[in-house]
Amino acid sequence: MIEWLFLLLPVAAASGWWLARRGVDRPRRSGCAAPDPAYFRGLNYLLDEQPDKAIDVFIQLAEVDRETVETPLALGSLFRRRGEVERAIRIHQSLVARTDLDREQRAHALYELGQDYMRAGLLDRAERLFGELVELRLHRRRALEALRDIYQQEKDWSRCLEVAEELRSLTGVALDNEIAHYHCELAEEALRTGDAAGAGAHLQAAEAADDRCVRATMLLARIVLARGEADAAVGLYERAAGQGPEFLPEILPDLLTAYQAAGRDDLRGPLGRLYEIQPSPSLVLALADAIERHEGEDAAVAFLTRHLSGHADLDCLERLIEFGQRRPGQDAGARAAYQAVLGVVRHLRERQSEYQCEHCGFSARHLHWQCPSCKQWGRIKPVSAHPLPRATVCPPGPKMA
């Protein structure tokens, strides 16, 4: 019953507007115009949890009086939000089928029915309705945004580009980030079919749309590295790291491959410079490996200790414990203590999200360029180690006698 009371609030508001309008339109009639009893009968059906009977009543009311269109529109929208899509479709289909609505009322009903179809997964039907609204130039912006959503679900990136360009010309709102990612999606499709030239053309278009697009630079570096141009690939990967330092964990494996292909052995310098930009856990481990290789284990331990004094980094803590575990001359108690601490750290690491959307907070185990939750592009990023607050040094107390 409580759910239906909440459902009725917007319906009552729309209906109150309708009743007030009828009173304004007929000010000179003697007495007050009584509302149609069928209206209250429909409300009673809702309160009695008989929504199908209520739908019949409100549809009949709308057929009698065009001014009651707002009530079934509101009711249908609320059914859709509650997940009762079939009921919403029934209401909105009845409105679309009417011939006495004005252009704006019919367009509103078309849009709502398109939303119903999208919620039901009937994307082809929804696409036709939103396309009709675009042609009618009614609710055009909302219809284009809905079409873009449909094409994204269908992974039809070429049509996404068309709609994005139309939206940009209509609204003046820059969609550079989205357009760049659509071109990157098309570039990846081209790479899967072996069309390196087509992929390169799309990546150039992506960079033209958004010169800060990390994804486009990473893909271009992959193409260049596959051609055997290791030094050029290194330059591109380092450029990508500058464009989006927070993506360093994603860039690093390919960058290390490019360094190796270019014959670079001592990586302390280049990795150290990247560490100053963004001390991500995977980069810290790679730098620790480079330090151990050229300076020894003690230097690597010292570096990890300094890093952990300022960052809550479980990956690096695990590596530091592993170094300690390998130290010779430990008794059984020390080995057991190291093993126990290492088990706790690994358990905490397994529970830790590796990627998170900075827009909606969605957590993931691998990178999605488009967030599955909020549908934003480029907002899911690797989770970085949190910096530790500076330790407060307490003044020494009085000397004890």
Quickly list its features.
single chain, 401 residues, disordered C terminus, two-stranded antiparallel sheet, mainly alpha
Counting H and I runs of at least 4 residues, what is the number of helices? 19
Tell me the strand percentage band.
under 5%
Number of strands: 5
- Helix-strand makeup class: mainly alpha
What's the alpha carbon Rg, rounded to whole Å?
31 Å
Shape: elongated
Strand order of the largest sheet: 3-2-4
Q: How would you characterize the largest beta sheet?
A: 3 strands, antiparallel
Average of the residue pLDDT scores: 83
Give the SSE string: HHHHHHHHHHHHHHHHHEHHEEEE
Poorly predicted runs are: 11-34, 391-401
Quote the distance from N terminus to C terminus.
Answer: 76 Å
Helix content: 55-70%
Would you kindly provide a written description of the structure presented here, covering whatever features stand out?
The chain is an all-alpha fold. It has a domain at 223-264. Helix content is 69%, strand content 3%. The chain contains 19 helices and five strands. A hairpin with a 5-residue loop joins β2 and β3 (363-364). α12 (214-226) packs antiparallel against α13 (230-243). Residues 11-34 and 391-401 have low confidence and may be disordered.
Write the layout of secondary structure elements.
Elements: H1 2-25, H2 37-47, H3 51-64, H4 70-81, H5 85-96, H6 103-120, H7 123-136, H8 140-153, H9 157-171, H10 176-192, H11 196-209, H12 214-226, H13 230-243, H14 248-261, H15 268-277, H16 281-295, H17 297-308, E1 311-312, H18 314-326, H19 332-351, E2 355-357, E3 363-364, E4 380-382, E5 386-387
Antiparallel strand pairs: 1-5, 2-3, 2-4
